């Protein structure tokens, strides 16, 4: 809601600034509802020579007029004379007119505006904030064209939805259909470029458009971005970026001298707009044996292959006991005779330290031992430490059994490694010894971390090992994979809350380690909240969130010898629901060259929570053979 209000204010105030030397201007807000824009502008002293006209359905206009009359501060601002509205004019002040008219009835709208004193000859700003999309396309197009034809000097500000067919877009559309307010514009105008062509074809001579990710980055000053980012603990980056990629702001004009260009970027950022090159597709299918297990509908969890055909899934937020909550139970996924099944596993927990943790890591140290590092319950409750997960020797062969959960007693030097989330923990080797490499993430004190810790297994002592080479930019929500004794770090979200496209290899040397940059070509599209695996010299990146691209991430294969980067879309024709590949977990099954994707999704703004209902198998045999 902040970014929506900010975009409208930005464009409106730019119009008022550019026209302040003119004797008269006017603003016409279409479908204004209960918007308080007039009162804010009036209170700021920005309406010296501007009249604001608001139009909405007659019953809405009457309710708003009653509300204004009943609040003395509003009445004082508008200069209420106490008179009653006449006809379609529900309220009339010196510089504020509230009209009750159906926007789809153009002739009636034109007559009422003329009666209220609207002047076609002076510079006019039209505002349509999530309004036109609810109208039949022929009627909304006629309104856009009417405004261009009847006003020689005019500007048009439009804010509404875009990108209807990707997973988030499908959830968004379903939400509005359930409210019986279908988004009609999306079929004809599914992206920003189509909306721009629409306005240019309807008589507007200039038109610029941005999605809200681009607007936030390019049009909001850096100090204001930082102010907003530090207002409160915030950790819903995926939902924020996805929501912003599904709304846009458009500024069109004609006859304005000088030109009205409120969407001129104040900063330039790397842009990956348009199509991403696609090398092929990967088929997706529901994993039949795991269908209908509610405990696997979750996000922010972790899944790890403990031994062949046996996976443990822990933590996250999802469905448990019929409600959405932080998930306490473990789930054991096992495969027998080629068929997967899942059971809920009880825990021997000495206290509640395990409970309800998201964005932790789980590292397998043996068939009977795994280590949980960090995580959070809420962004302000993060000191969750480390836990041992101990599995019975016969685990899986004679039923699920119990999992013993033990709090790790850490040395003071190692405590900093545990007080983080959205980090990575990766097994590496140095001089033949096993270590866990904890890197990046977030903490309660730092929004993004760039430090690392070497923990010697199994006693988890913090060891100082020399590291040279160019230090990667701080990041969280990246991926990390063991490879050739070292670790591959890919993507992530950086300090500026922008996805990163870099790939680094921490390589073992005789005396320590060295950071090396892996150059990819074409360049890797920046992303975060993905998962990753290595197979036979190829790095596989699965899903995630990226900005300024017209598609969603599928599977990207990077050849670690040549740097060749190939993108594959996921073919979801056999899935009956949107597959959201962020905040998921995935396990690579090398013998079958399959990826088992578990969970994923999240809170889709005000459209509801979408959790992928069933685990999905991605068949990679064709791309791992050909790439």
Q: Care to describe what's here?
A:
Keywords: Methyltransferase, S-adenosyl-L-methionine, Transferase, tRNA processing. Belongs to the methyltransferase superfamily. LCMT family. This protein starts with a helix and ends with a helix. The model has no long low-confidence stretch (mean pLDDT about 90). The longest helix is centred in the first third of the chain and has 17 residues, at about 1-20. Strand 35 (about 585-590) and strand 36 form a beta hairpin. The chain is elongated, with a radius of gyration of 28 Å. The chain has two domains: about 1-255, Vaccinia Virus protein VP39 (Rossmann fold, 3-Layer(aba) Sandwich); about 280-625, Kelch-type beta propeller (Neuraminidase). The chain is of the alpha+beta class and about 625 residues long. The strands form eight sheets. It has an eight-stranded mixed β-sheet with strand order 3-4-2-1-5-6-8-7, sandwiched between helices. An eight-stranded mixed β-sheet has the order 31-32-33-34-9-39-36-35. The protein is about 20% helix and about 35% strand.
């Amino acid at each position: 809601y902040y970014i929506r209000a900010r975009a409208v204010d930005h464009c409106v105030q730019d119009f008022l600034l550019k026209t302040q030397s003119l004797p008269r201007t006017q603003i016409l807000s279409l479908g204004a509802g209960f918007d308080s824009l007039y009162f804010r502008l009036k209170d700021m002293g920005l309406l010296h020579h501007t009249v604001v006209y608001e139009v909405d359905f007659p019953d809405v206009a009457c309710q708003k007029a009653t509300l204004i009359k009943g609040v003395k501060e509003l009445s004082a601002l508008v200069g209420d004379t106490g008179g009653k509205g006449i006809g379609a004019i529900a309220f009339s002040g010196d510089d504020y007119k509230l009209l009750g008219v159906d926007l789809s009835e153009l002739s009636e709208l034109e007559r009422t505006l003329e009666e209220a004193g609207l002047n076609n000859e002076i510079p006019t700003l039209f505002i349509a904030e999530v309004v036109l999309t609810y109208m039949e396309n022929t009627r909304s197009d006629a309104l856009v064209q009417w405004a261009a034809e009847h006003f020689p000097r005019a500007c048009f500000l439009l804010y509404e939805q875009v990108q209807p067919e990707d997973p988030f877009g499908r959830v968004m559309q379903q939400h509005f259909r359930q409210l019986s307010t279908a988004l009609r514009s999306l079929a004809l105008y599914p992206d920003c470029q189509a909306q721009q062509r629409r306005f240019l074809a309807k008589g507007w001579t200039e038109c610029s458009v941005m999605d809200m990710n681009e607007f936030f980055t390019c049009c909001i000053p850096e100090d204001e971005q930082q102010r907003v980012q530090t207002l409160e603990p915030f950790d819903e980056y995926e939902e924020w970026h996805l929501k912003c990629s599904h709304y846009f702001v458009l500024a069109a004009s004609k006859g304005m001298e000088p030109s009205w260009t409120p969407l001129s970027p104040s900063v330039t950022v790397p842009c990956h707009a348009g199509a991403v090159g696609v090398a092929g597709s990967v088929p997706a299918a529901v994993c039949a044996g795991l269908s209908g297990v509610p405990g696997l509908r979750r996000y922010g969890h972790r899944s790890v292959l403990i031994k062949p055909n046996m996976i443990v899934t822990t933590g996250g937020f999802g469905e448990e006991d019929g409600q959405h909550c932080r998930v306490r139970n473990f789930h054991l996924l096992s495969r027998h005779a080629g068929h997967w099944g899942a059971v809920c596993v009880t825990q021997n927990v000495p206290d509640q330290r395990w409970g309800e943790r998201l964005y932790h890591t789980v590292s397998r140290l043996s068939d009977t031992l795994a280590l949980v590092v960090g995580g959070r319950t809420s962004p302000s409750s993060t000191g969750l430490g480390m836990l041992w997960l101990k599995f019975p020797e016969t685990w899986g062969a004679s039923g699920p059994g119990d999992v013993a959960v033990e709090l790790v007693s850490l040395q003071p030097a190692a405590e900093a490694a545990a007080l983080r989330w959205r980090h990575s923990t990766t097994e590496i080797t140095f001089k033949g010894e096993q270590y866990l490499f904890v890197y990046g993430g977030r903490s309660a004190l730092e929004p993004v971390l760039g430090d690392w810790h070497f923990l010697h297994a199994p006693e988890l002592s913090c060891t100082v090992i020399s590291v040279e080479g160019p230090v990667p930019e701080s990041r969280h929500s990246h991926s990390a994979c063991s490879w050739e004794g070292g670790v591959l770090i890919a993507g992530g979200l950086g300090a500026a809350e922008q996805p990163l496209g870099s790939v680094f290899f921490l390589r073992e040397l005789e005396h320590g380690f060295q950071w090396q940059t892996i150059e990819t070509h074409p360049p890797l599209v920046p992303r975060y909240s993905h998962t990753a695996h290595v197979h036979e010299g190829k790095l596989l990146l699965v899903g995630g969130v990226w900005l300024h691209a017209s598609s969603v991430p599928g599977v990207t294969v990077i050849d670690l010898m040549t740097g060749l980067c190939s993108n594959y879309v996921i073919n979801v024709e056999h899935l009956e629901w949107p597959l959201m590949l962020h905040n998921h977990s995935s396990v690579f099954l090398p013998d079958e060259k399959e990826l088992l994707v578990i969970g994923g999704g999240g809170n889709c703004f005000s459209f509801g929570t979408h959790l992928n209902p069933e685990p999905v198998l991605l068949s990679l045999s064709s791309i791992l053979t050909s790439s």
